[in-house]
Structure formats: structure tokens, C-alpha cells
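INFO  loader      accepted 1 record
INFO  loader      residues=96
INFO  predictor   begin
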Amino acid sequence: MFVSVVLDPGSIDSARALVNILSQMGFKKVQRSCWESMKMNTADLTTLKREIDRVTDYYDGVRFYQFPINGMFMITELKEKKWRKCQFKGSSAPQK
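INFO  predictor   done
INFO  writer      dumping C-alpha cells
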């Protein structure tokens, strides 16, 4: 699956730890605070989230954009040390 990770670290230490984790997991930096991978599976994603949760604190923000997950687009966000997610299903209406 495709996963894009956008970082909003609260400190330099958090930024370094997050970049280290993403690099080790095979992500490539595509913009200043945006990293992408086309080779993630659900087990790797679970490990990535656990590692990110371990090195972040209340002031750090991380957002995942994932596709496809059961044919849906998903946004997962770590904000104020809580994970939240939102799923979007594509329209099944016929195109004109």
C-alpha cells in the first residue's frame, strides 16, 4: 500500500527520532516534512505507528495518508498523544 507521512514535530529531538524511524522503515523524503513509501504492509504500518508513539510526546503531530485499505483512502493522525483516523470511500455513482 502507499503511505505518506507528514511530520509536525514539537522539538528537534522528536524530529530526529521520527526521521530516523522513517529512514529505517524504508521511507523516502519527498518534501521538507513529507515522507513516502510504496512498499508498506499492515504489519509494517502497525510497527511504524508503535515506534512513532514511543518517541513522540503531547506536542508532536504526525499524519498518515494511506491507500488502498479495503478500497478506501484513510487518514490517521497522532495529535496530543492520541491516534485518530478517518476513512473515505470512493463514490460508486456512474461517471457521465
